[in-house]
């Protein structure tokens, strides 16, 4: 039975995607700790250094957490998985999940280093949110039960908290790149938006009988209005449509509606258009770029670039020694034994419905 609690916690974190390649090197600390399920399943010391991401060490414990999660996740989609079988040319299922785990660990390491470089730390609000999250879990499982759940994942509370904290740092970085933030650069945001073909528009859509006539009347009203945003809201109310406000779109090559939008100047209205010839009539006003939306997209691109350009090296001996099939089988066996012991002792298990 799959470990629902592990998946629940992992869902608080990030999704992962395949990395292209990593470089392998030695010279990192092997570690000395011999505690935890992941150590028993892999033989790798939790405090050993498995990866260096832009020079920042990632412990075996953190990497193995992601490897265990990715094995668990993939096995739900591939029954009786053979980790040595090829997923694609030259890449086995085992290779795939090892690289997936590298990419997840890389994302966290890049976020931590990026935040430190930018002078961003956990706020009092972040600390309070983390404390509240822990309190909720302890309320659900009890203190002993909470520690048991961590044991089932095979990680220390310190490592677990560090991964959760990285999510708050990422959110703070995203805020810093938005309007008013310490890293906000409006010129860069506008340049990115222009390059990507972003446009913010108000859209009125009419369908059915007399749609074109009604749209023409609304267009005339809109043209005469001094406050066009307010007029848009009033017209939506009359039409019993939701006034969603300005929406931000990106250019779609070959799409007639997109072409009509991109041809507009700022604060210019279209004529009544039926771009798809299906009787649906549109009246569109192009307005100033929604900077928060564009800034968020710009942040995502900056983050993607940082991840793509991150230097990732691994402890060659430790990385190559990992047999995914043996690790996953042993981890599954150990976890089942731990769950059985907890159930016998009357404690919560990860699959007891809580």
Polypeptide structure, described:
- The chain has 354 residues and is an alpha+beta fold.
- Helix content is 56%, strand content 12%.
- The protein is built from 13 helices and nine strands.
- The protein has helices spanning 4-12, 37-42, 60-75, 93-117, 124-153, 157-176, 186-196, 211-224, 228-239, 256-262, 291-309, 316-321, 324-345, and strands at residues 23-25, 49-53, 56-59, 86-88, 91-92, 198-206, 247-250, 281-287, 312-315.
- Strands 1-9-2-3 form a four-stranded mixed β-sheet.
- Helix 3 (60-75) crosses helix 4, helix 4 crosses helix 6 and helix 7 (186-196) packs across helix 11.
- The protein is elongated.
- The model is unreliable at 1-21 and 350-354 (pLDDT under 50).
SSE blueprint and pairings:
Elements: H1 4-12, E1 23-25, H2 37-42, E2 49-53, E3 56-59, H3 60-75, E4 86-88, E5 91-92, H4 93-117, H5 124-153, H6 157-176, H7 186-196, E6 198-206, H8 211-224, H9 228-239, E7 247-250, H10 256-262, E8 281-287, H11 291-309, E9 312-315, H12 316-321, H13 324-345
